[in-house]
Amino acid sequence: MRTPPSRPRDDALRTGYHFQPPKHWINDPNGVMYYKGVYHLFYQYNPKGAVWGNIVWAHAVSTNLVDWTMLPPAIYPTAPFDVQNVAYPKDLSDPFLRDWVKPDYNPVIAPGPGVNASAFRDPTTAWRGPDGDWRLVVGTKDNHLGLAVLYKSKDFKTWTPSPQPLHSGDTGMWECPDFFPYYTLGEYDHAAEKYVPDASLADGNDGLRYDYGDFYASKTFLDVSGTRRRVLWGWANESDSTADDVRKGWAGVQAVPRKLWLARDGRQLVQWPVAEIESLRGGHVNADVEASFRVRDLGRAEPWDPAWDKADAQTVCAARGADAKGGVGPFGLWVLASDDLEEKTAVFFRVFKRGDNGKHVVLMCNDPSTSSKEDGIYKPTFAGFVDVDIANNGGKIALRTLIDHSVVESFGARGRTCILSRVYPTKAIGDKARLYVFNNGESDVMVNHLKRVRHEVGEHHRQHGAEHMKTPPVPVLPRC
């Protein structure tokens, strides 16, 4: 297949501070860890092209989770596949862990009876239980039943499956499961490897997500560098065409690493970009926008349609998007907007009021439907409900959005709802990209706080082709 010539715009779409190698395809982050003062990111990578295939475990290192140095791939594949293997660093005195060895006793875990042999992958980081045994979880499926099977080992060589896999119907393959402790009310039986949550657990089985946008194959690691924080990684695929990726010569980025913790009310996990991202501030590349809004009159909130009780947030947002005038909202940000607003990506809130209990329903949306004039771009609306009592919070809600060329990564209500999307503007590029605050609702919305800072990328990012995007001053729009 001939590679079409690249365009200047292709380089302008490369990210400045989201991780991506100089060229070719990447997907899942793997095996992230901290060792001897160095962070290690392993990830799926095609060293031969910008489409999936020829996958190796690529390797990059950093001392701050922001500036990364590419190392040669750590592990190349050998048959068989869909089994679980191990590899060890050849030289533990090397903080960069550049050489890895596969022992001859691989594989250490093969799919057993009742396990789909062609869908058995993505193990978690192993951990030691109170009994001293190692444990890890592997994703699989049984027809449409998604499964996560827990395995135990005393020596990291011989593994025994738990008889009670975690499961959920009609979900399909459980890819990239994760397992880590957080305080909840309930009881965990270590002998039976079974956890029974307290019936009053607030989030129950509501299907909460890390991210409601283009965010997949996530993995966490425990950062033992000092704070013992849990850090979340995730892959953001492209939304343009395969032909576009081949022409660009690259595809896929990693989301910014996010600190992950349990909300103070215990209702859900919340996320926030790691503090090291702040070190990028002060430069002239990309933007980091923090806004705090206050709704003046929540009494103008539109009534919640009971038919939406069985719908997901994305369906509601698609029906009531950024251009659909409402009572309270839509209000938020137009990012990567052209002067004439022909191109813009909307990140916004909308507030409804239930008729049965009088409570407000807060919806957060990312609407890239007008993000690009180019044909063939996948531009779905992304949305999630925000678990916040906006009335008891004085009508206030906050939004933080990271804007990085072709990535718009947003954190609503201080990390309770997160949405990442990929956009490919043709006009709103570089110093022609604009940022607006907007309100298409009947109720006035006050902007209590608005801070826009520019991010400066490290030298290695510039080597990787990231172009400078100058963000002009922020015009503030009144209620439309």
Can you describe this structure?
With 480 residues, the chain is mainly β. It has helices at residues 8-12, 242-248, 313-319, 459-463; strands at residues 24-35, 38-46, 56-62, 68-75, 88-89, 100-101, 120-121, 127-128, 134-142, 145-153, 160-161, 166-168, 186-189, 194-197, 216-223, 229-236, 250-251, 253-254, 258-262, 269-273, 281-295, 302-303, 328-337, 345-353, 360-367, 382-386, 396-404, 407-412, 417-422, 434-439, 445-455, 476-479. A hairpin with a 6-residue loop joins β10 and β11 (160-161). The termini are far apart. Mean pLDDT is 87; it is low at 1-5, 200-205 and 458-480.
CATH superfamily of the largest domain: Glycosyl hydrolase domain, family 43
Structural class: mainly beta
Tell me the domain tally. 2
Radius of gyration: 23 Å
| CATH-defined topology of the largest domain | Tachylectin-2, Chain A
Unreliable parts: 1-5, 200-205, 458-480
Sheet bearing the most strands, described? 7 strands, mixed
Q: What is the terminal separation in angstroms?
A: 50 Å
Can you give the helix content as a percent range? Answer: under 10%
Mean pLDDT: 87
Q: Give the number of DSSP strands.
A: 32
The CATH class of the largest domain turns out to be Mainly Beta
Strand content: 35-45%
What is the tally of helical segments?
Answer: 4
Shape: globular
Which CATH architecture of the largest domain?
Answer: 5 Propeller
Tell me which oligomeric state these chains represent. Answer: single chain
